[in-house]
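Sync notes, pocket subgroup
Present: LS, DG
LS reminded everyone that the earlier model was apo-only. Rerun requested with nicotinamide-adenine-dinucleotide included. Inputs:
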Amino acid sequence: MADQDFPAGELMRGKRGLVMGVANSNSIAWAIARQLAVQGAELAFTYQGEALERRARPLIESIGADIFVECDVTNDTTMDNTFATLKDKWGHIDFLVHAIAFAGKDQLVGSFVENTTREGFKSALDISAYSFVDAARRASEIMNDGGAMVTLTYLGSERVVPNYNVMGVAKAALEACTRYIAADLGPRGIRVNAISAGPVRTLAAAGIGSARHIFKFNKAASALQDNTDPMGVAGAALYLLSDLGLSCTGETHHVDGGFHAIGMPREEPLGEPMN
Ligand code: NAD
């Protein structure tokens, strides 16, 4: 399904929002953005730096978006500029997509207890969790009441996944942040949710040691016996960001082929049956 859009509709007609985290056509943020556009949303985007701009610009232009702002979430000046640009061009927004994470490659391999450094820990939590708090606060200042926000997380926050290490800790923090932000913004009718996506082949996923094993194991052990389709993640984002998601907030919604629901995989797909 990955290359096919859902049927066009009006679910997001009249709504404007910011998408943070499109690096290339494989990005989960891009799958989400495309389906938001198909439903009539007007979109603005951020990009992290020149190298990523080159890949992302043609995508952004292909859906007719013209607000495309450089933003490194560790740099307050670029964050200020991003939200000032939105305020200047649009006045208000209706939704935010936060699909940003980073940990140094040296932090995403081997023993968590041995390899996690103070700097690696701080940077992973800053970029992958605090950036959502910061973006949510800034977005809420220009967000219409009744707006919505979505961030992306992974099961490594709840259970140990080899090599995911400090990113699992950052995702646990991100999910907790989601609940606290949801409580703070709830009185304004702003809903804040996280989607816990199963493994998807992206630039970020390539940075994690043993990615191949993770994909293979997920496919074999998930309820659907398949890898996660980014379109499923986009569909969930559409639900959570549109009025379909009314009354849903503070939630971490799994879109992972049911992998999270399995206590023990059946023996057949994983190979040798045990005696
Ligand atoms: P991706 O590489 O396409 O996107 C990651 C984005 O983070 C990039 O656009 C990158 O520019 C941005 N980013 C990193 N550091 C930044 C910084 N300092 N400032 C601004 N932007 C920065 O990969 P993706 O897999 O689409 O990741 C999107 C989100 O989905 C991440 O939060 C990731 O953890 C999450 N996620 C991914 C998977 C997966 O298997 N790919 C599964 C579950 C959750």
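DG: The radius of gyration is 18 Å.
LS: Strands lie at 16-20, 42-47, 67-70, 93-98, 143-153, 191-197, 252-255.
Action: DG to write up.
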